[in-house]
Design a protein that fits this description.
The protein is mainly α and about 150 residues long. About 55% of the residues lie in helices and about 10% in strands. The longest helix has 21 residues.
Length: about 150
């Protein structure tokens, strides 16, 4: 692990404000990972799926994967979307329904892991999809929640 002095060089210093911003960014990143679970990089997703970087990009463009951009613009893929080495299609589709309702993709990802006492019998959309429950019910809940968010 490098120190700040080693990163900046001996003749440069870090302002208190820059250190504060860096600390806040690190804390926010950790908070999201605590909420969503592990986040994978593109290389990890390529290895998991056994595909090229171009194929990962294609899956993302066609909304068959979930990717979140971090503050540096790097893509991070929530591990919750994968089951037995493949994307959970019904969950990914539900995510995009919610994400397209003009909210942050990070918020839509949080929706995926939040239990829904009313519509999904207390399960989160991830648990619902992993449990092999009715895809149509999950799609319906996603549409209803997206409609509420879009108002």
């Amino acid at each position: 692990m490098q120190t700040v002095g080693e990163l900046l060089g001996a003749d440069r210093s870090l302002s208190v404000e820059a250190a504060r911003r860096g600390g806040l960014l690190a804390a926010a990143s950790q908070a999201w990972e605590n909420e969503l679970g592990p986040l994978l990089g593109t290389a990890e997703v390529r290895e998991l799926l056994g595909v090229s970087r171009q194929r990962v990009d294609e899956l993302l463009r066609s909304k068959r994967l979930i990717a979140l951009s971090d503050s540096a613009g790097h893509r991070q893929y929530p591990a919750f979307q994968f089951h037995d080495g493949q994307p959970l299609g019904s969950l990914v589709a539900a995510f995009w329904t919610v994400a397209d309702a003009a909210i942050s993709p990070w918020t839509a990802a949080s929706w995926c892991v939040a239990p829904d006492d009313d519509a999904l019998n207390g399960l989160s959309p991830v648990a619902w999809a992993r449990g092999g429950r009715d895809d149509a019910d999950l799609a319906r809940v996603a549409r209803q929640d997206a409609a509420r968010l879009d108002q």
